[in-house]
Structure to design on (217 residues):
């Protein structure tokens, strides 16, 4: 893992070993800075891959792409509610993952954890996925597509003393503007381009890595 991520790893490791949940404060940009990747603009995102953001690739979305993403969200939403917005976000992230995967090779990403994947530019671990999903969410926000939510900073849960099935796991976060409910947005366990799970943070990763939430439909 790159030296610019080293301080992040030390802090995260200390916090996780001290407790099962590693919460962070501040805007999502802080996480992106810690991972050594650029914040999204209105036209592009920086995508982490090779495990732990060992590699980053800047991907530009054309006007045609942005119109397609907005169309996916409009088509998915049945009502103007936070719940329907989260469903629409899940489908938009799926679209973006597929488009990005075709351009940088991460369409070959194997779901879940594969210890052979470190350093492989086609593979992504949960740190990559949480970081990328955060960037995708911020990109959607910059397009004016988030009405009911803001983008939160990623957080981690883990019970490493229980073994590999309880390995620390990261997720992106959406937060409802009204009421402040936070939602985990997690695509790590699924095939590239499959809809992420979107669940309340208190209901996310409550047992082990083999019992994560299902994709959003």
């Amino acid at each position: 893992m790159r030296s610019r991520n080293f301080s992040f790893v030390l802090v995260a490791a200390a916090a996780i070993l001290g407790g099962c949940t590693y919460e962070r404060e501040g805007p999502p940009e802080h996480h992106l800075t810690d991972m050594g990747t650029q914040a999204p603009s209105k036209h592009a995102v920086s995508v982490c891959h090779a495990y732990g953001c060992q590699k980053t690739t800047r991907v530009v979305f054309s006007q045609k792409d942005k119109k397609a993403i907005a169309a996916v969200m409009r088509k998915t939403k049945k009502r103007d509610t936070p719940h329907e917005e989260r469903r629409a976000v899940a489908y938009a992230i799926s679209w973006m993952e597929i488009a990005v995967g075709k351009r940088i090779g991460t369409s070959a990403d194997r779901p879940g954890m594969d210890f052979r994947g470190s350093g492989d530019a086609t593979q992504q671990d949960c740190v990559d996925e949480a970081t990328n999903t955060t960037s995708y969410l911020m990109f959607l926000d910059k397009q004016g597509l988030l009405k009911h939510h803001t983008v939160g900073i990623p957080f981690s849960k883990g019970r490493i003393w229980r073994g590999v099935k309880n390995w620390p796991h990261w997720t992106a976060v959406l937060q409802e503007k009204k009421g402040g409910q936070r939602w985990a947005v997690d695509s790590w366990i699924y095939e590239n381009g499959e809809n992420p799970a979107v669940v309340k943070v208190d209901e996310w990763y409550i047992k082990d890595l083999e019992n994560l939430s299902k994709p959003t439909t």
Q: What stands out?
A: Confidence is low (pLDDT under 50) at residues 6-19.
